[in-house]
Design brief:
10 strands; 46% helix; globular
């Protein structure tokens, strides 16, 4: 753990420091997630970062979204990464490794990966509209973005929901946004490959910037690259690709975010005079499917479903709480989720208390307080849960999530993630992290 920042004391200090982080990471049309580790534009990062720019530089907030959707494929997919030409040699897997250049449907003027990420863009747009300094002047931007986001949602419901269930599947752990959850290890138990034969040679660059205990292990990276290699060898042809593809997972957070964005797009569509019937149908269908298929009654939480093996993946993570954001749970299930958040699985004990909210349950065998997505607290997860809890009339618990988040930043600086144990807390991963700064700004503006 590292603590390189001086400790800001007041909310004014936090705001000033957060704005400095965003300014430091600004690359013109978009803001990179961190100074060195992530030198390009990432998909859901761009949405959260836009919220940080909105109060003081609305034009830049809009630019973040426009720059990201410059990489949208003709089938509607918005890529996980839009690569910066300037920083092309400083990240793995870089643009050339993905082998997307020249593919039909990929925009010719954008360098992109071949995966997507959680569709936060709809609810980000709704929040940007609330902050627009001149709604009339901003209307053309929202009209353009509405059509682009609608195309993304159509892609997810068409090419990622082959049985019309209302649940989109992810084809790679990176698409979840939570790359290194113990969930994926359970899925990979039935995916067999030879790292020597089935994984192309690669050189990780992340360990040049962050110590190894904070990052995914080599065997995890081998799995990541194995899947990318299948995708690129098939030239990303869909839906034919999916017939024998080994990793297809319906994940609760990915679908709850999509459902919540459907809701937000309905409101935006009404303002723009659009027919929002399809969005309403998607929202209702996805919420129902989340409940019917992803609820684990024994554990009182939502879990992933492995489409290949046709089974739930019984691993408790913070992702299983996010369906509160889209209004999926009824009151009984919502109460079980909020109780889970406050029990030792996430809150710790009196002897060993924890900051909310660990990314993986504190008692899970795969829990690691330092390692990427295997336990640390992430500010974007807390931000989403904060709004989810307000939706279910839980202001005290929402305030606790917000206060824990701000206290972690106040003590340690703007880190990528944080050790959840209060007696050992500190920043982990890379510092000067953009979405941490951006969401602190969004909280403090309220």
């Amino acid at each position: 753990m590292n603590d390189r920042f001086s400790e800001p004391k007041t909310e004014t200090d936090l705001l000033k420091e957060a704005r400095r982080v965003l300014q430091h990471n600004l690359l013109g049309a978009f803001t990179k997630p961190a100074p060195s580790l992530y030198p390009h534009q990432w998909n859901w990062d761009a949405g959260f970062i836009a919220l940080g720019w909105a109060p003081t530089n609305f034009k830049q907030a809009c630019s973040e979204m426009t720059a990201l959707f410059r990489g949208q494929w003709s089938n509607g997919m918005v890529p996980q990464i839009v690569f910066s030409v300037k920083n092309s040699g400083k990240y793995f897997p870089g643009y050339r490794f993905w082998e997307t250049q020249g593919l039909p449907g990929k925009p010719r003027n954008a360098r992109t990966s071949g995966l997507t990420m959680p569709a936060v863009h709809g609810f980000v747009l709704q929040r940007l509209l609330e902050q627009a300094p001149d709604v009339r002047e901003a209307r053309p931007f929202f009209r353009r973005m509405y059509d682009r986001v609608l195309l993304l949602h159509d892609y997810l419901y068409t090419l990622r929901d082959p049985h019309g269930e209302g649940l989109a599947f992810i084809c790679h752990p990176w698409e979840s946004g939570m790359d290194n959850l113990p969930t994926w290890e359970t899925v990979f138990e039935t995916i067999h490959f030879d790292p020597e034969k089935d994984v192309p040679a690669y050189e990780r660059m992340d360990l040049q910037h962050v110590d190894a205990p904070f990052r995914p292990r080599k065997e995890s990276y081998d799995r990541y690259i194995y899947l990318v290699n299948i995708l690129r060898k098939s030239h990303y042809k869909k839906p034919e690709l999916w017939n024998d593809y080994p990793f297809k997972v319906q994940e609760p957070m990915f679908n709850a975010i999509l459902s919540h964005s459907n809701e937000a797009m309905m409101e935006l569509g009404k303002w723009l005079g659009k027919d929002t019937g399809q969005l309403r149908e998607w929202h209702e269908q996805t919420n129902k499917a989340i409940n019917d298929k992803l609820w684990d009654e024994q554990r009182g939480v939502y879990v992933s479903f492995d489409l290949v093996q046709q089974r739930q993946v019984p691993v408790v993570t913070a992702a299983g709480l996010i369906p509160l954001l889209s209004g999926a749970p009824d009151q009984v299930r919502a109460e079980r989720l909020t109780a889970l958040l406050q029990n030792p699985k996430f809150s710790g004990t009196a002897e060993n208390p924890a900051w909310l909210c660990a990314s993986t349950a504190l008692d899970d065998p795969g829990f690691d307080p330092f390692r990427y997505w295997r336990g640390p607290v992430w500010i974007n997860m807390n931000w989403m849960m904060y709004h989810a809890l307000l939706r279910y009339n839980q202001p005290a618990l929402a305030a606790r999530l917000r206060d824990d988040s701000l206290e972690l930043v106040r003590r340690h600086g703007f880190w990528e993630y944080y050790n959840p144990w209060k007696k050992q807390s500190g920043g982990c991963g890379t510092d000067q992290f953009s979405w941490t700064a951006a969401l602190v700004i969004d909280w403090l503006r309220q």
